[in-house]
Amino acid sequence: MRYLPIFNLHRRLEVRLLDGWLEDSSGYKVVDVGCGRIPYALKLPWASVTAMDMSVEAVTAAQRVTKHLGLDRTFTHVVGCATQVPLRDGSVDGVICNCVLEHIVEDGLALQEMHRVLKPDGFLFLTVDCDERQLALGWVERFPRWAKRLLLNAPVASGRTVKEGLLSHLDHRYEVVRRYSEHVLGSDLDKQGFEVVNNSYYLVGLGAAIFEAAHAFKFMDVERGLSRMVYWFISVFAYPLVILTERGDRKGHGLAFLAVKKARE
User: Fold this and answer.
1) pTM, whole model, 2 decimals?
2) I need a labelling partner for 96 at 20 to 30 A (CA). Which of 15, 40, 114, 228 fits?
3) For the chain, how many structural domains are there in total?
4) Are residues 96 and 226 in the same domain?
5) Average pLDDT of the chain?
6) DSSP annotation of 152
7) Which of 28, 45, 24 is nearest to 91 (CA)?
């Protein structure tokens, strides 16, 4: 449990990247910006974590989770906004911002705040939604219109293309303001005083196909009910195959960056 909901393919792939990029976090002070109901920083059980979200309900739920896991001594929970982080300048060793930036209108201001609260050489682990890949389920585009209406969620079937319909559906459902590319986000981080250490796409290959199917087809709904459990079940057994299909498939539905705060010149 301390490694987050292992039944969610999306989260598990992000944790894998964090595992590979981040060294021992013992003694670190970390802020989880937009922590949601299950703080992503649960992956750092030996760090001192401030779990922050603008939703009082989410913060309350996160408190229950960390208490249940026996981590309440190392976690502090606060209500706050990514564009106005309630922490002092240079007060943390790391910032985690997992699938939050794409929901913020003033994303540049949010990056400024993350930079402000970091100590020199502090790290930022950032994941965002991406718009650079074609559909893994591109063959669905060849379905006749009647079949699309029968099998696909209405917003997906009504798009000019299945890809446009799917992206529109995802943006509306998850309140996505924008999607990022590797070049644009890398440039934005540089402008805000970060040095990119590593970056990678995820949800590629088979992972992309599972993600698309879970949101495009009527019989799948990863957010509720039996379909959510089916998605978790598929995620558990598909995960090793998803890792194998990452090779040779560069673009993904998700994009992750590890960056550090540049030392002042």
Assistant:
1) 0.89
2) 228
3) 2
4) no
5) 86
6) B
7) 28
